[in-house]
Amino acid sequence: MDFNPNLQHVIATSGDDGYVRIWDTRSPSSALMSLHPHAHWVWSVRFHPVHDQLLLTGGSDASVVLSCAQSVSSEQQKEFRDDDEDEEEEEDFVEKLQDGQLERIDEHEDSV
């Protein structure tokens, strides 16, 4: 289990069913999101300390998976940039990551 560093009421849990679930502790009756990054037990889950839409998991299937949970994160979908106070304010849209698996490393010989 890990707490979201940017949203104090959001936690991520991992389980023996291969799922990672994200919960809002204010309303724990159902998960906000469920991800299935592993084929077997998920033994650890961690939020990125700054970009809370990124989750890193390790499991008994000998893999490490980087997943995205953009739809339940605190990250803003767009940034505003002001290069010079005298110039007009420009909007730069940051590409939004899709929820789900971003990267998988299967090169381990044993559980992670």
From TrEMBL:
The keyword Iron-sulfur appears for this protein: no
Acidic residues: compositionally biased ranges: 82-93
Species of provenance: Caenorhabditis brenneri
Biological process per Gene Ontology, one example term: protein ubiquitination
Presence of the UniProt keyword Transmembrane helix in the record: no
Coiled coil: none
Keywords: Repeat, WD repeat
PROSITE patterns the UniProt entry points to: WD_REPEATS_1, WD_REPEATS_2, WD_REPEATS_REGION
InterPro entries: Beta-prop_EIPR1-like, EIPR1, WD40/YVTN_repeat-like_dom_sf, WD40_repeat_CS, WD40_rpt
WD repeat spans: 1-33
Protein family per UniProt: Belongs to the WD repeat EIPR1 family.
Residue ranges annotated for the EIPR1-like beta-propeller domain, each copy included: 1-66
Short name of any one Pfam family annotated for the protein: Beta-prop_EIPR1
Region annotation Disordered: where it falls in the sequence: 73-112
Origin superkingdom: Eukaryota
UniProt name for this protein: EIPR1-like beta-propeller domain-containing protein
Biased composition regions of type Basic and acidic residues, renumbered to the chain: 94-112
